[in-house]
Here is the input.
Amino acid sequence: MKAEQLQMVRRSKRNQLIIMALFLAALTVWSAVGTDFTPGALWGGLGDGARFLFVDLMPPEAASFPGLIEPALDTIYMSFVAMVIGAVVAGFLSIFAAATTSPHPILQIGLRAFSALFRNIPVIIWTILLVASFGLGKLVGTLSLIIVSIGMLVRCFAESLEEIDMGQVEALRATGASYAQVMTQAVLPQFLPSFVGWSLYNLEINVRASTIVGMVGGGGLGFTIQSGLKLFQYKEVSMAVLLVLAIVLVTEFMTNRIRERII
Here is the structure.
């Protein structure tokens, strides 16, 4: 009897896997048809893509490097300022957005919704909206990165606060400690490593996002890349792309080392 039941369970799971595989295959085909994606179209564009990459873009124009230093610094400035301001604001708001530290559930839900709004609207959309208000420039790029940073970090910080050891919190509350004393003596010491780790990770994200932001008017290397593409200065664009890659790699290396030392 047990053997028959085991066979039925196995047969049921096998049928479920087959149905799921067929569903995914049908969905893939349907999506490919909807996007006009075919192996032939992909193969047909490889030649033009390779020609553009290895003939038009390569080799990078080294003479353009001095002119890219200022946009590169702007990219770093925007990313760092957005990280610092975003982390400070999000750190404060996350205290009221976490279930373990929020003084009231309504405040928690409201801040979660607030952060979701900032987080789920792409940074490029924020940039386009802010360009209409503030015009082109680094200020727009910085504001866009700050908004998205706050949205992301509020959620990350709140989840970190919800994972702290509540034993220390309850022990202080049992002694009659105030809300501020509980926060400074039991919550913040546990929260600090996560605060540093997520903030540094946000810096890496900002460096990458700043390029996209710049291409729609936010300044930095992204704006230089977009201008070069419009003027068909592909060698200069190639140099700017390599500089972006170098900044990203250096940022990742430095943030990883800092996390190893602090956390």
